[in-house]
Design a protein that fits this description.
Elements (H helix, E strand, L loop, with lengths): L1 H32 L11 E10 L10 E5 L13 H9 L3 H4 L4 E6 L9 E9 L5 E7 L6 E9 L8 E6 L1 E3 L33 E2 L26 E7 L2
Antiparallel strand pairs: 1-4, 1-10, 2-3, 2-5, 5-6, 6-8, 7-10, 8-9
Length: 241
């Protein structure tokens, strides 16, 4: 009898142990089958429509550089222009300005913006709402005049909201305003663009305008039609997404 009880007890133990292993295996399989797949949220796209109108009479604008960034600026009145700004202001070349490491995203206009004409540039940025917008272009029938927007705060723009800005013209201070044919790269002269020699005051200032041959500057290749006054551009920034 004792041996029979022992045998039954042993069988019961083995049965219970096998059941426990089955249950554990089933639980493990259940966990594998029920793993939660976490889907990342879709990217958030912020889209801006930048419309630029050339308000001058006869000053074509070089391809417009538009930049979104969170820090810094691209010029300060009273301080020396960067080489990137000098190249833009003397030759219309915006490539080095667009390569600045503070920029989140940037784009160049399609080409020369003639007087009286408009262009719209679209900029998209993903998962990073920018705080500032900057824009720069050269008045190409000048020695080193440029205009634009420097670090305009746009972080509070809501979808379908827009703001308009009228821009002033600046003198990069890197080249004398001689108005000579040899030193003006625009269609009025077809002269030299960027030259790394700085022969002017070497600081950014509000531009005093041109003199022109019509006002007695005999060496000038420019005429009264090339004069400009502020504002030079109308810029409308609209957040569309």
């Amino acid at each position: 009898m004792n041996n029979l009880i022992k045998l039954m007890t042993k069988k019961t133990f083995l049965l219970l142990a096998s059941s426990s292993l089955f249950l554990l295996s089933a639980c493990n399989n259940s966990n594998n089958d029920d793993e939660v797949m976490v889907t990342p949220p879709p990217p958030i796209i912020y889209s801006y429509e930048i419309s630029v109108t050339n308000l001058t009479q006869a000053q074509p604008m070089s391809p417009i550089a538009v930049m979104l960034h969170n820090d810094g600026d691209f010029w300060q009145v009273g301080t020396s222009a960067s080489t990137a700004l000098e190249k833009l202001a003397e030759s219309g070349d915006n490539s080095e300005l667009l390569d600045n490491n503070i920029i989140l995203v940037s784009k160049s206009g399609a080409g020369i913006l003639p007087a009286g004409m408009s262009e719209t540039i679209m900029l998209d940025i993903q998962d990073n709402i920018p705080a500032k917008l900057s824009l720069a272009t050269m008045l190409v029938n000048t020695n080193d005049a440029f205009t634009g927007i420097n670090a305009l705060a746009i972080e509070n723009l809501a979808v379908n909201e827009s703001i308009s800005v009228f821009t002033n013209s600046y003198d990069a201070g890197t080249e004398k305003n001689s108005e000579l044919m040899a030193t003006i790269p625009g269609p009025a002269a077809g002269g030299e663009g960027f030259n790394n020699a700085r022969d002017d005051v070497d600081f950014v200032a509000m531009h005093a305008g041109i003199v022109s041959q019509d006002d007695g500057l005999m060496q000038s290749v420019l005429t009264q039609a090339h004069r400009f006054d502020n504002p030079s551009l109308k810029v409308t920034i609209k957040r569309v997404k």
